[in-house]
Amino acid sequence: MKSLTSRDNPFFRQLIKLEDSVRQRRAVGLTLLDGIHLISAYRLALGPPKTLIVSESGCENMEIKRLLAERGVDVDLVVLSDVLFREASPVKTPTGIMALISIPPAATIPVHKDGKGERGEPFCVLLEAMQDPGNLGSILRSAAAAGASDVYLSDGCADAWSPKTLRAAMGAHFLLRIHERSDLVEVARAFNGKVIATTLKARISLYQTQLTGSIAFVFGNEGAGLSDAVLRATSEQINIPMLGGTESLNAAAAAAVCFFERVRQMKKIPRSVF
Amino acid sequence: MKSLTSRDNPFFRQLIKLEDSVRQRRAVGLTLLDGIHLISAYRLALGPPKTLIVSESGCENMEIKRLLAERGVDVDLVVLSDVLFREASPVKTPTGIMALISIPPAATIPVHKDGKGERGEPFCVLLEAMQDPGNLGSILRSAAAAGASDVYLSDGCADAWSPKTLRAAMGAHFLLRIHERSDLVEVARAFNGKVIATTLKARISLYQTQLTGSIAFVFGNEGAGLSDAVLRATSEQINIPMLGGTESLNAAAAAAVCFFERVRQMKKIPRSVF
Question: Which Pfam families does the entry link to (chains A, B) (predicted)?
Answer without folding.
Answer: SpoU_methylase
